[in-house]
Amino acid sequence: MELLKQRIMKDGHVKPGNIIKVDSFLNHQMDIELMNEIGKEFAHLFADQPITKILTIEASGIGIAAIAAQHFGNVPVVFAKKTKSKNLDGELYISQVESFTRNTVFDIQVSKKFITEDDCVLILDDFLARGKALLGLIDIVNQSGAKFAGCGIVIEKGWQDGGEVLRKKGVRLESLAIIDKADETGFTFRN
């Protein structure tokens, strides 16, 4: 998606450890016009699927998923919670996820009442690095018995193995921008 790539080049930064900072427009402060275009693109890419729910993980995926949901006929957005809270009750789907940026393992949880075998679920998230969050979300969809439509990612870190791992597993993966190199000189995108 050319608009996204241009925005990454203009406003994105790289921190030590190849941490890509796009917090001025994607995952802290959100550019709603850009997010709307991202949502339209995901709807176009997955137009062949009868999406009934969009699943993401808190927190950065929520805004992306909510805006994209409008382009899928206002389907509900469900987000996996990273911590058990008092308002999360009933039976839960639970999967373990290893966080690259936090260097920790945690459980993600979704109430069973929000995803059922009657659903067709699309997973959306902001970044793909090693694929651990997506594998956890896919596990939750599989636990539910719902149809799994695929994964939509805004930015994939192409130098890490997450995309390759998921594609080898047969996961339909649509990344809007794949960055093969990110350093102090800028960004190199895969065509």
From TrEMBL:
Keyword list, A-Z: Cytoplasm, Glycosyltransferase, Purine salvage, Transferase
InterPro entries: PRTase-like (IPR029057), PRTase_dom (IPR000836), Pur/Pyrimidine_PRTase (IPR050118), Xanthine_PRibTrfase (IPR010079)
EC numbers for this chain: 2.4.2.22
Binding site for 5-phospho-alpha-D-ribose 1-diphosphate: 129-133
Gene behind the chain: xpt
NCBIfam families given in the database record: PRK09219.1, XPRTase
Family from the record: Belongs to the purine/pyrimidine phosphoribosyltransferase family. Xpt subfamily.
Cited CDD domains: PRTases_typeI
GO CC annotations, alphabetized: cytoplasm
GO biological process: purine ribonucleoside salvage; xanthine metabolic process; XMP salvage
Compartments where found: Cytoplasm
Name of the protein: Xanthine phosphoribosyltransferase
Protein function: Converts the preformed base xanthine, a product of nucleic acid breakdown, to xanthosine 5'-monophosphate (XMP), so it can be reused for RNA or DNA synthesis.
